[in-house]
Design a protein that fits this description.
2 copies of one chain form a homodimer. The first copy, chain A, contains 18 helices and 20 strands. By secondary structure, chain A is of the alpha/beta class. In chain A, the strands form 5 sheets. Chain A has a 7-stranded mixed beta sheet with strand order 1-7-18-17-14-12-10, with helices on one face. A 4-stranded mixed beta sheet of chain A has the order 3-4-2-11. In chain A, helix 4 crosses helix 10, helix 5 runs parallel beside helix 6 and helix 12 runs parallel beside helix 13. The first copy, chain A, is globular. Chains A and B meet through helix 2, helix 10, strand 15, strand 16 and helix 11 of A and helix 2, helix 10, strand 15, strand 16 and helix 11 of B.
């Protein structure tokens, strides 16, 4: 079943409802933003934040713990190393990055029609990353399993608005921590042919990812192209620990993509004002990206961010205006530096896919798109600020991505967009339903949604008064029941399974 | 109870939770936008749409039906009048408007601390307008009554994010159509001291509004200041009917504000492309605004718009990317013309305050703010694209307005926003909870929400697993139970009631 077929264009449901059309090329593998970015900061404001980032890098410094190799790279590059603390001359990280990091690069997919561009005006959407819990189709909240993980790969694969299957969508808690990375990488490869992310929990798990990815793409492609991305998280404020550094080294040394993503919680792992959060996020990001370029100049690297505010009454993290502002501001910082930008996504504090989930997810998602995001993580499925993934919300978020994707097309003001000749026929007070201009366009003019109800009240009531999650629930069931696995070379599949078996035989069982 | 007191600042709940603080000045009566507008069109794109609007005004023309006085105004101004069809030379309407219409004006409120500015960077939020149905606190959908109407005035009065009580929030269907305008205007005056809108269903109902408003503000203020706004809707495409023209004349002749608001449904009352919808909206709006200036040069007039797309499968109107684009484009057209802009708001197709309602409302609301809206109608309460008002959704929308309001503050990049000195104390890996920079700011640093849950999963579960509407339901009950009517001069109150009694005695009972 070619769900992701021609009719798909951008809409979540539009793709599906037209799936009976004649076969055609697959949906665009990524979006091209045709609207401006929303630049919340003035030029002076951006410069002031850049200056403060340099102050942090120079005067406070960053600790790189338990990884002497990193210290050696920085020492050779001219930084001041005091124990594990590294201080950078003003402008040094920026210069290293700008000397060799690509502004735009291509990530390969198993299916060449699904290669994505990352950078510039290109936008790539990928699902939630890292949820330990799942809210399942029975409304139960429980620990996620490998079956859930693979189901979300399948849903990501057949949703046209999802361009990438992401990484640790949810944690397969039924498999030992020491082994589950193998099943996850295999899941990405087997249940989709879209691009994906690999393991970063340690250096050797990153290396397993490299080995499996190399088997998929072949040595020649793997050694010269970006075939997998890895998420590199510093331990804010101003620290990189051993696991992050080991993983960064493995990905960069192999020429694979690093998504260097500091995470600042205002008032905890950073200060409370958006300007100071921005300065810290950028300083931490620049240090990690510079390291990737010292390890292998020209290796793809992405500036990623995550940030939260706090509800000062409860102490709980929240995503309101501070986070929105950080997303928009970091987009500007990223463009001035000249690297691709990662942020996201459909994030909410809500425990269930209710109205709050809708408000919060839509706004955060929209600001990420307006920030000029190139690689959007957490684009679908998130509840509890990412602690829990919901099947129902996954499809609702995808539907919203469809509408936002059309927004990113901008407004066509070429002559054919206007209808003056039809007014001459229709006249004042007329109806445009049968106008030539309408008839030529009505099939593709609008975002068509089924999950987002637009029936009359009476029609909706007579159809069972379902709310949006109830409609999504039915749709998830249908999609999973009808899923057809993408083709894979049987030899490759066997080789991957052999590799996993061999590795699992020597790895200990560890659940922590 | 001073809900709308100092602590309020911008937040919906922030205002309320700090209401036990010492009394202070009321919340800002309107917002000042400190972020850029989101300009979706290029300069050339805006110019092309302006050109097409002039083509419509000049080559197709606009019909002004059953109102010879209007035709006479336009004939004198130099337009070509053929029957009821008026054709305008290119640039004529623009010139009339730019010669005398104010770019910014003040609307007076009964409480002088609540006067609002309309235009420039000022933003004024007002509730839903015109719902025949209400979804009440028992979840029942029924026809709205005058009690509902007055309840929504009360909620608007005490919500800091609502600056204006709007107009026909919902239809008091338990009062004859011929008389209900009197009760509505009285409700606005009696249950709030914020600014409001009056009746526009006919010329004589508009005149009753003038008479009552003059009683409130006194002849001197009423004759020289804007004390009430009226919504003027052409009958798209390209027609103004008698009631709209009569009302426009009454408001403009009295120097009161006209909110000239064309309403285009793509593929029905206009063409299907955003560019052509924009051209029609602007042409229709300019004709009405020009008329206001011919009637009384300098009378306040606002360019308003409403637009919908269509679900081509069901034929139902929807608000996705086409409507979002119209909002943003019309903001640009409005600024180039130099008049205040009205659009809005928290709009959704959903029948209930579910996830769909959240997604759709948040996005539409956000684009209106980013369009540079000056007067935002439908900011809270809307379901079924405005056919139904919901108590629960009213407060949820207000909460979202609080967060979006803080967004509009932009990012402070002055030196005090940064925390370099604290990093020297905290160091890499430290915690900012007790940092000086944090302690000095944490009370006001974040948007504080109660309706939008940010508890842990376990806390939320133990508190009853309520969804957002359930929390809002309780809050509506509390707010209405504790409502204190704003003070009013007893003589004025009596005079208004006498006026209403006298008018009702001579008016027929008509329910259609």
């Amino acid at each position: 079943m070619a769900r992701d077929s021609q009719g798909a264009r951008r809409g979540g449901r539009r793709g599906r409802q037209e799936r009976t059309d004649e076969p055609g090329p697959i949906a665009p593998p990524y979006l091209t933003r045709q609207i401006p970015t929303f630049d919340i900061l003035s030029e002076e404001g951006v410069a002031r934040i850049e200056e403060e980032s340099e102050n942090l890098l120079c005067e406070i410094g960053i600790e790189f713990r338990d990884h002497p190799e990193t210290l050696e790279y920085f020492r050779k590059a001219g930084a001041t190393v005091e124990g594990v603390l590294v201080k950078f001359e003003r402008g040094m990280c920026r210069e290293i990055i700008q000397n060799s990091a690509p502004t735009t690069f291509q990530q390969h997919a198993r299916n060449p029609e699904r290669h994505v561009m990352i950078g510039g005006d290109a936008m790539v959407f990928s699902p939630l990353y890292g949820a330990p819990f799942v809210r399942d189709l029975d409304g139960e909240r429980r620990y996620a399993t490998i079956d859930d993980f693979n189901n979300f790969i399948r849903l990501s694969h057949q949703t046209p608005t999802m361009h990438h299957t992401g990484g640790t969508i949810c944690e397969p808690t039924d498999i030992p921590v020491s082994k589950r990375h193998l099943d996850m990488v295999y899941g990405h490869i087997r249940h989709s042919d879209k691009p994906f992310m690999g393991a970063v929990t340690s250096g050797w798990q990153a290396q397993d990812t490299m080995d499996m990815t190399r088997m998929v793409f072949g040595a020649e492609t793997f050694d010269s192209q970006c075939c997998v991305l890895g998420m590199i998280n510093p331990t804010s404020p101003l620290v990189y620990d051993k696991d992050a550094l080991e993983s960064l080294h493995v990905y960069a040394a192999n020429g694979q993509g690093t998504v260097v993503t500091p995470f600042v919680i205002a008032g905890a792992s950073g200060p409370v004002t958006p300007a100071s959060m921005l300065a810290q996020l950028f300083a931490e990001g620049m240090a990690g990206m510079a390291l990737s370029q010292l390890i292998r100049p020209g290796s793809p690297t992405i500036f990623g961010i995550n940030s939260m505010g706090l509800n000062m009454r409860t102490g709980a993290p929240v995503r309101f205006d501070e986070s929105w502002k950080c997303v928009l501001g970091c987009g500007q910082l990223s463009r001035r530096l000249g690297v691709p930008f990662r942020c996201g996504g459909a994030s909410t504090n809500s425990k269930i896919p209710d109205a709050q989930a809708g408000y919060e997810s839509a706004l955060y998602l929209n600001y990420t798109v307006q920030s000029g995001v190139n690689f959007l993580i957490h684009a679908a499925g998130s509840l509890e600020l990412g602690l829990c993934i919901s099947y129902e919300k996954f499809l609702l978020d995808c539907e919203m991505l469809g509408a936002i994707s059309l927004m990113a097309d901008g407004i066509d003001t070429s002559d054919s967009a206007f209808a003056l000749a039809d007014y001459a026929v229709t006249g004042p007070g007329g109806n445009f339903l049968a106008a030539e201009h309408t008839l030529a366009r009505y099939k593709t003019a609008f975002f068509q949604s089924e999950l987002f109800d637009s029936l009359s009240f009476e029609q909706w009531r007579d159809a069972g008064s379902n709310d949006a999650p109830a409609r999504a629930n039915l749709d998830v069931q249908t999609q999973l029941a009808n899923f057809e696995e993408p083709a894979i070379d049987p030899g490759l599949d066997e080789a991957l399974l052999d590799f996993i078996k061999t590795r699992k035989a020597v790895l200990p069982d560890s659940y922590v």
